[in-house]
Amino acid sequence: MERAIETRHRGLIGVQPAPPEAVVETAQRVRREAGFPVGWLIAPGVAWLILFLVVPLASIIVFSFWTSTGHGMTPDPTLRYYHEYFSSEGFFDPESKKFLEPGIFIRTLWSTFRFTLTVMFFCLLLGYPIAYFLAMQVHSFKWQMALFLLCMVPFWTSYLIRAVAWLPMLGRRGLLNDFLMSIGVIDKPSTVLLYSEFSYTMALVQLYVVLCVGPIFFSLAKIDKDILEAARDMGATSFQTFREIVAPLSLPGVAIGMIFIFVMIMGEFATAVVVYGGKTTTVGTVILNYYAVANYPFAAVNALMLMIAMMIGVVIILRIVDIRSQL
Amino acid sequence: MKTKHEDKSGGTQSKRIHRREFLGTSARAAAAGAAITAFPAIVRAADPIRSVGLGVSVINEIQAQASRDLGFTVRGQALGYGAMFGKMLNQNDQYEVAEGYYNDMDVMWPAGVWQPIDTQRIRDWDKVTDLSKTGRLTPESNPGQGDAPFRHLWVDENGKYVEGPSRYVTMVPGWHNADSLGYNPDDTGRPIESWAELFSEDFKGAVALLNVPQIGVMDAALAVEGLGAYQFKDKGNMTREEIDFLIDFLIAKKEEGHFRAFWETFGQSVNLMVSGEVVLESMWSPAVTAIKAEGVPCVYASPKEGMRGWHGGCSISARATGKALDQAYEYINWWLDGWAGAFVARQGYYMSVPENVKKHLEPDEWDFWYEGKPAAKELPDPFGTIIVEKGEVRDGGSYWDRFSNIAVWNSLMDENDYLVKRWTEFLSA
Description:
- Chain A has 16 helices and two strands.
- Chain A is mainly alpha-helical.
- In chain A, strands 1-2 form a two-stranded antiparallel sheet.
- Chain A is globular, with a radius of gyration of 26 Å.
- By secondary structure, chain B is an alpha/beta fold.
- In chain B, the strands form three sheets. In chain B, strands 1, 2, 3, 4, 6, 9, 10, 11, 12, 13, 14 and 17 form a twelve-stranded mixed beta sheet that branches. A three-stranded antiparallel beta sheet of chain B has the order 5-8-7, with no helix packed on it.
- The longest helix of chain B is centred in the N-terminal third of the chain and has 21 residues, at 11-31.
- The chains are: A mainly alpha, B alpha/beta.
- Chain A binds chain B through residues 69-72, 104-105, 107-108, 111, 167-168, 171-174, 191, 194-195, 273-274, 277-281, 285-286, 288-295, 298, and chain B through 81-82, 85-86, 89-90, 106-108, 110-111, 205, 208, 211, 213-214, 254, 259-264, 268, 271, 275-277, 412, 416-417, 420-421, 423-425, 427-428.
């Protein structure tokens, strides 16, 4: 109990002096009196999660071992779909041009992962300064909120509309091409702007950057301005202040933002169709394709592998930043 | 509320309350000035039937007209292809009629989600053309490779496939069409007369392909055959070697930058041509009118190798019994009766009983849509918007010309899983 109260009073820097005895007593009394059974409070949430998260997850795992009949599945246990997922023809054959090349599904998972990292990098590069500006440079709370809401404006329209809006911007006869041609940078429309890795990255960054601005903004806004002043008083340069104080204290926000983006983009499949012209495959599209031909076990294997990859990713992020201790 | 009353009092009072509630409802409806239309709707709402399908056949106007003509409500649910497929296969207690497609029959029929349909209960069965019964619309027609309706039509009363004709069928043939390539004649600079043009160097970087593996691969196969690069034994059911050859060919083309995009929805295919991103692409025929409506010239090719056909129709859920089953038959009979056929004809689709459609079309419409003659005047789409200029001619000639030369029908291959895998590799390349 003592510890609990102590942690509750832990400030952002170090341990503050213990609260007066009277306060501790009050806190303990209040706690005892609020004897409402917590079990009942969490029951609806737990039931909901069991029904709509645990059960479906468990069925995905179970189904991945069943056998597809071409129009459904039967509970004949098989490892065939895992073999199909991991196997790669010519992997051990030095003669084959596919020597030591993993199978298409692992390559798809890897490319999805690699691409997600790229997008995360650009989101952080763009999102952090936005959040920093909002939290540190805008002093009026009213303005902070107003500008923050402005960041959220894109969310007022549908996700798909935001993706589609890139087409008239980047297309062969799009605004950007028109502009580049009018100032004479290019003499015929460039086709690399749309239906390319460029447009895909750009659209995803634009679609998801806000997801990291929010958390980073909140963790930056929480930083006690007195600490920054103290740092300045003690002769720290602004870079030192940032490196020693601001950056570490904003890490939880960064981590949460990155987890959001990571999870969203790993499961992404719609944007690739719209702005990449379907010229790539993500794990999402693979799952969809196999669902569409009623090969549910194989779709389940792909879904599981995606989930495992996501879990590993989230764990790595949480390993780098210990959110629990810093929030 | 009602149950409370029923619990407390006996049957008599509850009956009275029923009646009072009912009168109350209709009085409110009358007050709203909708008594005449709303009243029968309340009575009918008791036992509607449900139909699922694609937006091709499930359109508000069609099921509303069916409800008016039949005296019971037909609730249509239009879904995307994947959702439709999943619902038909996994939730046959959620619909009575499946407005499905013959190329899915290899999945749906063995799954037992549908029941054999007794053709003796289909009023106009004799008028259904031979296109779906024997595969030959005219005696000299080429039935085409792949999942042609006649290969998936005939069953016995227990649902076992038999060599036709027999008394029972899997699906009553309905709307159908033949697809090919659409192009912008201003940009191509020449008429497109072969599937091979899909791979022409002239259009490098300005070509799009349909991103549905089962169908996209057929368009590609027709093009490869058109080039003379390969001869498939059966494009409707390729072997692994054939799939490998084709996908390797496609990967090489993709790496050269031949494809501008792969489209998945009708709207995307329209947008690609309207925005000038592509000059030639695999296309569904209603896209042509949509593109022209945007002021962009577009022609639907009728390649010399023949078109790629597809055929839809109505099946009945295995769960439908009793009154619901009778109503399902009535709805299917209504589909063949011509009104719906005329409706979809104005979108460019054909029906399995053309003579009934003719009764519901104006002669000028019939001449244009079915006979392939120049339009004698401006013609509307089903919603009344003018989409055909006077003098315009439908691409691909008359119905009988078009359907006597189907190169291949949309199909589900035995090696479908392998195909999907290789297609994934193609798109990742």
